[in-house]
Amino acid sequence: MVLAELQDVHFTYAYADTPALKGVTLTLEQGMLHGIVGLNSSGKTTLCGLLRGIVPSFHHGELTGRTTILGRELADWNPDELATTIGCVFDNPFTQISGIRDTVFEEIAFGLENLGVAREDIITRVIQVIEQLGIEALAEKNPNELSGGQRQKVAFASIIAMDSDVIVIDEPTSQLDPEASEAVFEIIAGLKKLGKSIVLVEHKIDLVAEYADTVTVLHEGRVALTGTTREVLTDPRLRSFGVTPPQVTELAERLAASGRPLSRVPVTRAEAVELIGERMREEVGGGYRTA
Amino acid sequence: MAIELHDVGFTYPDGSRAVSGVSLRVEDGERVAIVGQNGAGKTTTVKLMNGLLKPTEGEVIVDGESTAKRTTAQVARTVGYVFQNPDDQLFAADVRAEIEYLPRYLHWDDAKRETRVARAVELTGIAPHLDINPKDLPAAIRKFVAIAAVLVSECRYVILDEPTAGLDQRGFALLGTLLDRLQGEGIAVVTITHDMRFVVDTFSRVVAMAAGNVIADGPLPAVFCDDHVLNRSRIRRLEVAQVARDLRLGDQAVSIDDVVALIP
Ligand SMILES: Nc1ncnc2c1ncn2[C@@H]1O[C@H](COP(=O)(O)OP(=O)(O)OP(=O)(O)O)[C@@H](O)[C@H]1O
Ligand SMILES: [Mg+2]
Fold first, then answer.
1. With an 8 Å Cβ cutoff, are A141 and B141 in contact?
2. Which pLDDT score is estimated for A63?
3. Is the pTM of the predicted complex or chain greater than 0.90?
4. How far is it, in rounded angstroms, from Cα B258 to Cα B263?
5. Closest-lying ligand to the alpha carbon of B36?
6. Hey, which CATH number is domain A2-245, 3.40.50.2300, 3.60.20.10, 3.40.50.300, 3.30.1330.130?
7. Which residue's CA lies nearest to atom 7 of ligand 1?
C-alpha cells in the first residue's frame, strides 16, 4: 500500500489570497524516509498538515484534487483516527509543549495517556525514549523551564513515544546542536528499519542527503523536483528552487570548475571520500606514468 | 566601550545551575558567534549581557557600568536582544505596531520614529507584512519581525539568539547582508547559532560553550580544529572538513575554500 497519493491537490487557507498548494501530484511509498525541502512558504508545512488531516479539518480552507492516505480518501478518514495513526511534530517546538504538565516525564507520557495506554506500559515507554534522546537529566524538570533545544527534544520524544506507524515531522532539529541533530536522524533511521514510514521537512540538507530515500522539492506550492535523493540533489535546477546542494556536492562543483572533476557527483560524505580518494590515487598513478 | 562578563555565574530559581565562571568581552563594533550544546548556557549568557537576567555571582559591565545597578530597560537601550523564541518577544496586533512600540514608548518625534522604523523594516525585508498579525506569519518571518523590533532602537550591541533556526536560503542571504550592514554602522553583533556553515562563512571570532562554561574563544581554528573542544561542545567540523580528515589531508581545514585548496 502507498502511504500517500496526491493528485492535482490545490489548497487555499481561509482568508488567504493565494493558494498554498497549487496542483501537487505526488506519491509517497510506505516504509521509506521521504525528505521534503524548499524555501519557507513553499507549501511544506501545508503538505504535512494535509497528510495528517489537520488541513482542512482544523486549518480550514478550500481543498480540491484527490488525497489518498493509506488507501483511503482523506474525506473518508475520521480526523481523530488519522491524528492517532500519524504522529506529528510541528515546526514550532515552542508550541508543541502542552504547558499543563509539571515534569518532562509527564509531558512525554501525555500523548500515551490520551491513547489509553496502561500506566506500566507508559512508564516503560517514556523511560525508553528519554534514554534514546539522552535527556535523563531533564526528566524531573518543568517543561516550561528548558532551553530551546531541550524543548525540541522533549517534543520529539513525545511523538516517538506514541509509536505510530507513520510519522510526519516538520523540522525536528531546527533548534538542536549538531550532535543532537545527528542523533535525531539516527533515531528516525532506526524507526524506518522497524518498518515505519517517515515524512520529514528539513533544511539541513547534508543530513537529508545522508538519510533520506527520496527527496521532494516544493516551490511556490508545486512539486518542482521529486525522485531518489541522489537524482534530486544532483539536479542542476536545485539551486533555482532555493535549495542549497549538500556541502560535498558543492565541493565537487568547485573541483570541477578548477579542472579537477570527479568521476561522479557525490551527495554524501562517504561518496565524497571515495570519489576524491579515487582521484588522488589517479593523480599519483598518472604522475608515475608520465614520469 | 565593551560588554564585559567577569567570572559570572547564574542559577535559575528552580536551582538549575546554568552558567558558572564565565568571563567574556565583546568590544564595540565586534562580531562574535556563540556555539555549543543544547543547554550549555548560551541563552542565559546573552540574557545576562542585556540585563534580562542579573548574575547571581560575578559582574556584568556594559560600557563601564554594572548591570546590577541598572534596570533591564536601561541596559536594553544599549544592548538589544532578539529572543530565541519570537513568541516570547512579540505581543502587538500587527507588525507595524510591534516595531513602532519602542519609538512611541520613548516619545520620539515623528521624523525620528519614521526614519528608524523605515531602516529596521528595510534591513529585515518585512515591508510586505506590516499589516499582518505576527502570529499569522511563518516562523522564519516572525523571527525577522523580532529582529526589526530590536533594530529600531538605538542600541550599540545587538544579540541574535538562533536567527538561523529554520531559515531557508533566502533568509540566510538576508541575514548575511543584515550583519554586514550593522557592522558597517559600527554596531556589535553577538549571534548564537547551531549552523556551523554560517559560522565559518560569516564570523572570524567564535566562542564555544559546554555545560555552563566558555571552553574556547578565538579565531575559527581555535574551535574547529580542536577535537577536544568540538566533542565537549557537541559541534562538528563542516562536512567537507571532515571529508578532508577522512582522506588524511590533515585537520587544519575549516572552510570549503580550505578543502578545495588541499585536494591535489
Ligand atoms: N527558566 C528556566 N528555569 C530553570 N532552568 C532553566 C531555565 N531556562 C534554562 N534553564 C536551564 O539552564 C541551562 C542553560 O539553558 P540555556 O537556555 O542558557 O541553554 P542554551 O545553551 O541556550 O541551549 P539551546 O541551544 O538549547 O538553546 C539548561 O540546563 C536549562 O535547562
Ligand atoms: Mg538557547
1. no
2. 92
3. yes
4. 9
5. 1
6. 3.40.50.300
7. A145
